[in-house]
Amino acid sequence: MANGTSHGIHYGLNPESYFLSKHTLRQAGVTKYDPATEAITIALTWKASEQHGWEQFSETVRHELIHAWQYHEFGEADHGRTFDRWIDVLDTTQHCERFTTPKWWLVCEDCGGRIPRYRRSKTMRNPEQYSCSKCGGAIRVEKGDGY
Question: For residues 131 and 106, what is the distance between their CA atoms, to the nearest angstrom?
Fold first, then answer.
């Protein structure tokens, strides 16, 4: 798969550029980019692959390959227009299904937006110092089922 082309998407990955992690808690997969070296690394979560099975987990692989392509082509990655154009072509989704239950949720008091949290961050410890990124509303912390 090194420097391969599939479905018209070119990605510059070497076999050393991806690995399965047994330590990742939150994401089924993540693509990282080091601008200093231009290294692109895809980390896939072992637990998610076991829980979801190959059919569903392969969507995560394709999702992360889009991010790798974005980094390769543009030096940045997101879920915007350049991502959207590949969703149908590669039969994947914009957001991967959660495979683990969050310990807490950050909940917006105004719009009701919910953000999963797995570790106690500054925002978790001091929610009154932060606001919702979508509407600017106050946020509160709720315990999740994974607590």
Answer: 10
Question: Which residues lie closer than 8 Å to 45 by C-beta, 6 or more apart?
Answer: 20, 21, 24, 27, 28, 29, 99
**SS3 at position 122:** helix
Assess contact for 42 and 29: CB atoms under 8 A: yes
Length of the chain: 147
Structural Rg of the chain based on CA atoms = 17
- Summary count for the chain: helices (H), strands (E): 3, 8
Angle at 62 between CA 87 and CA 37, to 5 degrees: 110
Mean pLDDT per 10-residue run, the chain (147 residues)? 40 50 67 91 82 83 93 93 93 78 90 87 92 92 81
Sheet holding 29-34, edge to edge: 18-21, 39-45, 29-34
Give the rounded distance of the alpha carbon of 138 from its chain centre. Answer: 25
Tokens encoding 142: 């709720």
Query: Which pLDDT score is estimated for 9?
Result: 44
